[in-house]
Fold this sequence. Notes:
6 helices, elongated, 10 strands
Amino acid sequence: MSEQQFCYRYPHPALAADCLIFGFDGVDMKVLLIQRANEPYKNHWAFPGGFMNIDETIEDCAKRELEEETGLRNVAVEQLYTFSDVNRDSRERIISVAHYALVRLSQVKGGDDASSAKWFALNQIPSLAFDHDEMLKMAKNRLKERLRFEPMGIELMPEAFSMNELQNLYEAIAEQKFDSKKFSDNMLNLGILSEVDSCQTKLSQNESRKYRFNAEKYDELKQKRIRIEFLIFCG
């Protein structure tokens, strides 16, 4: 059977996926950027991403780019927004579907395309290529909104962490300071934290207590999506 050729009245724009990868180092919330090697925006920093292949979905494209750029596999990515400004890319008409993912810093090893990858704290972001500043602003607002309706941190924190580290994470996302005692009391009241046995961790008097997430209760609270009002009163 001869191959059929199809002609379309309207031109087809290119479709790409960009990936905003967030991590946390115990003090600062960070995002992974890639330094571009080619024009446009040569040597500028941008989010990892690339063009969708004809035989994959946009989510498959995002996951493939994550693996190529960072070595990450089987990461839960979530669509953020579709960026379709007519002049967003000087090369051609390109529409980008931005995705974001929350990962532990130790998971990112760097792939073949990530030789110029670097983590940046959210308060130290350089000027970004294309409309990636807008992407970042929207992603930060999405994380803030999630923080009001569901617990966060299980994807970002190490297996054992201090309450101070968890507070640092929530403050970085919310962009506001919390009272330490109120924060600790309210987090413990949520029932999603289990204290790590001090005999196992061999804590000295000067060391902070360590906690881990109770995955079952964490998922239960996340599914309920009740408004976590205590954040309003932690200041």
